Amino acid sequence: MSRIEKVELITKANGRVNEYFVPSIATGMARVEFTPTQEAAPQADVASELQLTFKDKFGHNVVVKLPMNVHIDKGE
Questions:
Q1: Contact, 25 vs 43, CB < 8 A?
Q2: Most buried by CB count within 10 Å: which residue of 29, 32, 46, 76?
Q3: Percentage helix, strand, coil for the chain under 3-state DSSP, each rounded to 5
Q4: Nearest 5 degrees, angle CA 19-CA 15-CA 31?
């Protein structure tokens, strides 16, 4: 059985870890949760990539990359 080893949110513009949110896997669930890292929200939408690293039953790392956007809070 595969298990998730690591989850990261990468900003596509600079290839670095997203500065606004830290993703994590909810305990016992197949759900990613995002914890804000700072009070300031992005000034514009941020094109990002969610990267999930799985360890397969043979011990190999398999990286799955999913495109996503961090949207600005429009106060709605």
A1: no
A2: 46
A3: 0, 55, 45
A4: 60
Rounded (10°) CA dihedral 23, 29, 30, 35: -10
Please say if the pLDDT value at position 62 is more than 90.
Answer: yes
DSSP class of residue 66 equals: E
The bridge status of strand 21-25 relative to strand 32-36 is antiparallel
CA distances (Å), origin 36, targets 2, 40, 56, 62: 28, 9, 30, 27
Stretch (H or E) spanning 22: strand 21-25
Which DSSP letter does residue 73 get? -
Average pLDDT over residues 7-29: 85
